[in-house]
Amino acid sequence: MAVRIVLADDHPVVRLGIRNLLEAEPGFEIVGEVADALQVIPQVEALQPDVLVLDLIMPGLNGLEITRRLARRAPQTHIIILSMHANEAYVIEALRNGASGYVLKGSDAGQLVQAIREVQTGKRYLSPPLSERAIEMYVEKAAGAPLDPYETLSPREREVLHLAAEGHTSPESAARLHVSARTIESHRASLMRKLGLRSQTDLVRYALRRGILPLED
């Protein structure tokens, strides 16, 4: 049977390139494409693909948070993060959240194909020059760290945090999430309190540290 794949990236040209690459491979079938981060989880739950190729940085909700949720809600789907960032902090968080693979966008095209074939057999795949041994050591160290305040946020608070970090106003976030602006403001106040943040500047700095917004290489 063919490996059923969903592509999630907000850039149409990138999705087209990946689609063309994977459709040329025997045994691969693209069953869905998603451009809106907030639609990735519903799409995966509906299609139940074998593999999700997921962009790390997408507006509205980044790949790390999507991975965290899908690991619980669609454990049958292997997730491969596709990223331009070789920062080990991103890789560690992706693996901790349940990703099976991490492929750099600057990699040889064959690495994505190899990643899909390997994760489908239950293995883990990391693009060179990422060191699996080093990553495992970091993951073990992180596992013994104190509880991250981010873990105390509700799923909705995380969505509001992501949108606020991107600069969306309360009315704009409300429109994206189909709730009232007052509800957004309530969630924002709660998440600011839990994270110990006092201003939009604090929130953006936190988002950069936490990988919600991309760091400059």
Give an overview in words:
This protein is α/β, with parallel strands linked by helices and 217 residues long. The chain has two domains: 3-143, Rossmann fold, CATH 3.40.50; 149-210, Winged helix-like DNA-binding domain superfamily/Winged helix DNA-binding domain (Arc Repressor Mutant, subunit A), CATH 1.10.10. Helix content is 50%, strand content 14%. A six-stranded parallel sheet has the order 2-1-3-4-5-6, with helices on both faces. Strand 5 (101-104), helix 5 and strand 6 (125-126) form a beta-alpha-beta unit. Helix 2 runs parallel beside helix 3 (63-73), helix 7 crosses helix 10 (200-210) and helix 8 packs across helix 9 (181-195). It starts with a strand and ends in a 7-residue tail after the last helix. The mean pLDDT is 89.
